[in-house]
UniProtKB/TrEMBL annotation:
Active site: residue positions: D207
Name the record gives this protein: Pyrophosphate--fructose 6-phosphate 1-phosphotransferase
GO molecular function, one term: ATP binding
NCBIfam families to which the protein is assigned, alphabetical: PFKA_PPi (TIGR02477), PRK07085.1 (NF005482)
Lineage, opening ranks: Bacteria, Pseudomonadati, Bacteroidota, Bacteroidia, Bacteroidales
Chief place of localization: cytoplasm
Family: Belongs to the phosphofructokinase type A (PFKA) family. PPi-dependent PFK group II subfamily. Clade 'Long' sub-subfamily.
Entry-linked SUPFAM superfamilies: Phosphofructokinase
Cofactors (names): Mg(2+)
Phosphofructokinase domain location: 75-353
Pathway as given in its UniProt record: Carbohydrate degradation; glycolysis; D-glyceraldehyde 3-phosphate and glycerone phosphate from D-glucose: step 3/4
Quaternary context: Homodimer.
Coiled-coil intervals, chain numbering: none
Length: 552
């Protein structure tokens, strides 16, 4: 494939590995661990992988003295799972280099098009010449990705056939919270059966919601938010030049508002909704609309009939009335899957007939296309496909109506003209920033060390991320430690607890301190495109979220 000039230059970039991983390592075990919630239940469900200790790698200074005979030789399989995130290729490159550093004869197989590749035995051996073409590039096209959910014993057994055939010792699943949940289930299954196959995870997702005390961020968040912030900044500058449009920009990120918040901290828009705050304050759709309309009216009073509004894509699920509605719809869809096949009118009738009175009201307050979206599509993990719901349009239509009412009462004088944008897929396959390129390479390289030390049911963990990469800490975290029980597809399931925006955390607090000023005045910041070369502060900056969480 033809490479752009930037890609050619970028191919030569050497990710900066934490110094602890520069040579042989040994794993230091911590205390036995507990899950973050529902400990008794999780323990029962994961008798073989619950309570494992945290692992931290330290330099093995007397490794050379201990060496007797040849190092162990093993094969590893790798899977990309779920939505694309910048840096996935570097995880695979790091894993490959880590395996080869342990023993040149180690082999790496890539399962194709996501977890389905393991079940269907679709794979490719990843050789040096093949992967070299993908170093520091965005995308998941090296082996493809998919959203097949690995959860049934039949799938695990099919996987085992090819694992045995290729003499694979470990599977590394690069995925988000749902995929890592399934990695833990698979690890438990093989351990329970006493088959010597390790399963490890790597924290991927632009959404930034797979994080906790031990996993400081998921990869891809840094690059994706840099791309969106460039676009938001460009639009803000356009708005400030023409002074005639209000831009409603929906941002990807599924449930959590980490992406919207990070972009707000970078670009200082006039308004940014944070779904977690909407839920905490028990706000209705009308409350949000009234608040935005107030900002529009105040700016109009200053002669500014333009502005920028950031909308997190998961908003709808956080409005308490909608949340209740969606929960009932989820259970209804699990119980009556035939709803999905019904004609629109029949479907509407069926849904309305089965909803509680309160939920019918919430349902009927929505435009027909949003109603249909909510009662139809779920992804294989049972999530509402929020990317497909046009909340930005819904909000601006409602704001427009509200402003008309305010005009009649003499509370608003101005012109309101709205434009809409959705930034999501634009950012998922960008070439990884230096941070993501380094972080991903380290996650993969570290995963090879976890295989080597026999760990299973662990997530590759690289910490201390606000510091320069050579100071990063490397190790492994038992995945069961991140578990709690949640309602999925109508049943209680053990899952990794999703990290939502912490309203008491520094990133949100900093935003909250400044937002009144950003709303009334025009304080836009224009971050410009991701930079790969140049001064440290230009090309090696981490996200504001990470900065405020750790340093600020
Ligand atoms: P992951 O959790 O799999 O990383 O998904 C990220 C994401 O980009 C979400 O932000 C978004 O809601 C979803 O994927 C879109 O899914 P799809 O790629 O299937 O349209």
């Amino acid at each position: 494939t033809k490479k752009s000039v930037l890609q050619q230059a970028r191919a030569a970039y050497q990710p900066k590995l934490p110094s602890v991983l520069w040579g042989p390592v040994k794993a230091v075990k911590g205390e036995p661990t507990q899950s973050v919630g529902d400990q008794e239940e999780i323990k029962k469900l994961f008798p073989n992988t619950y309570g494992l200790p945290e692992l931290e790698f330290v330099k093995d200074t007397d490794a050379s003295k201990k060496k007797t005979g040849k190092p162990a030789k093993f094969n590893v399989g790798v899977i990309l799972s779920g939505g694309q995130a910048p840096g996935g290729h570097n995880v695979i490159c790091g894993l490959f280099d880590g395996l080869k550093a342990l023993n040149k004869e180690n082999r790496l197989y890539g399962f194709l098009m996501g977890p389905g590749g393991l079940v269907d035995h679709k794979y490719k051996e990843l050789t040096a010449s093949f992967i070299n073409d993908y170093r520091n590039t965005g995308g998941f096209d090296m082996i493809g990705s998919g959203r097949t959910k690995l959860e049934t014993p039949e799938q695990f057994e099919k996987g085992l056939e090819i694992i045995k055939e290729l003499d694979i010792r470990a599977i590394v699943i690069i995925g988000g919270d749902d995929s890592n949940t399934n990695a833990a289930v698979l690890a438990e299954y093989y351990k329970a059966k006493n088959v010597p196959v390790q399963v490890l995870g790597c924290p991927k997702t632009i959404d930034g919601d797979l994080k906790n005390e031990w996993i400081e961020t998921s990869f891809g968040f840094d690059t994706a938010t840099k791309v969106y912030s460039e676009l938001i900044g460009n639009i803000e500058r356009d708005a400030n030049s023409a002074k005639k449009y209000w831009h409603f920009m929906k941002l990807m990120g599924r449930s959590a508002s980490h992406i919207a918040l990070e972009c707000a901290l970078k670009t200082q828009p006039n308004y940014c909704i944070v779904s977690e705050e909407v839920e905490a304050k028990n706000m209705t759709l009308n409350d949000i609309v009234a608040d935005i309309a107030k900002v529009v009216a105040q700016r109009a009073a200053d002669g500014n009939n333009f502005g920028s509004v950031l909308v997190p894509e998961g908003l709808i699920e956080f409005i308490p009335a909608m949340k209740k509605l969606i929960a009932q719809l989820n259970d209804m869809l699990a119980e009556h899957p035939e709803i999905k096949q019904m004609e629109p009118d029949a479907q509407h009738k069926f849904v309305v007939d089965h909803l509680t009175k309160e939920n019918v009201e919430a349902f009927n307050s929505l435009p027909v296309d949003v109603q249909r979206q909510l009662s139809l599509d779920r992804d294989p993990h049972g999530n509402v496909q929020v990317s497909l719901i046009e909340t930005e349009k819904l909000l601006s239509d409602m704001v427009e109506k509200k402003l008309e009412q305010m005009k009649e009462k003499g509370e608003y004088v101005g012109k309101f003209s709205a434009l809409h944008h959705f930034f999501g897929y634009e950012g998922r396959c960008a070439d990884p920033s230096n941070f993501d390129a380094d972080y991903c390479y380290a996650l993969g390289y570290n995963a090879a060390q976890l295989v080597n030390c026999g760990a299973t049911g662990y997530m590759s963990s690289i910490r201390n991320l606000a510091k320069p990469s050579i100071q990063w800490i490397a190790g492994g975290i038992p995945i069961t430690m991140m578990f709690n029980m949640e309602q999925r597809n109508g049943k209680q399931k053990p899952v990794i607890r999703k990290a939502l925006v912490d309203l008491n955390g520094r990133p949100f607090q900093v935003f909250a301190q400044h937002r009144a000023k950003w709303a009334r005045e025009t304080c836009y910041v224009y971050p410009g495109p991701v930079q790969y070369f140049g001064p440290d502060e230009v090309c090696n900056q981490t996200s504001k979220t990470l900065y405020y969480e750790q340093e600020g």
